Each structure stands twice: as structure tokens, then as C-alpha cells.
What does this fold into?
Amino acid sequence: MWSNNDFSILYSICLYIGKESYQSLQTVAKLFTSELNELQNNGFTDEQGNTWLVELFFSADWKFLALVKGFKSAIANNSCLYCECHKNERYDMEHVWTNSHNTKGIYIYILFCN
It folds into this structure.
């Protein structure tokens, strides 16, 4: 598990230039989804025989992450990427939301997952 601030060990695995839509992302994702899952589950072994565990994460704007996670839009009832906050409760700054996985906003299969 990566636990320090050494950003020199972070690498991009894909840069995509094209139309930002679920269909185009689905096409691109098919090219390397199984490889990402294998890397996440098994890590990789270097030339010296050392096995390295890998932690995958996305770095992107809201629209890309929403497409990947299968969300409808920023104005949907549950559009937060990290919690299940309803749009009518966003104004409540006193409420503490648990930073977890939002399953209420998903409407189609999530890319890059089995």
C-alpha cells in the first residue's frame, strides 16, 4: 500500500483523446480491463523476482469519474461520487457524510470492474 508522498512512483497507464461518452469509454476499457484487474489482484514480479503490490486509482474530473462509475448527471438525486447525499440535502453543512461508495446514483454497469 502506498503510504508516503513520493509521487515519482505514480504512473499514468492510459491517456485517451476522443469523445467523452460512456460508449467510447466502454470501447477503450475493453482493451485493458482484464489486465488492470490482474494487476490489482496479483501485483507484478520484477526481474529480480520481487512481487510488487499495486494500488489503482483514478485521477480525473467529475464528468469522467461519473462516466466510469455509471452516474447520470451532476444534478441527479444522488450525484456525489463519494457518498449517498441526496441533492435536497447538499445545503446542510452541519451533516457529516461518510466518505464511502455511492450505490444510489449508479444507473449502468461500472466500467473497469468485473
User: Anything to note?
Assistant: The longest strand covers residues 44-45.
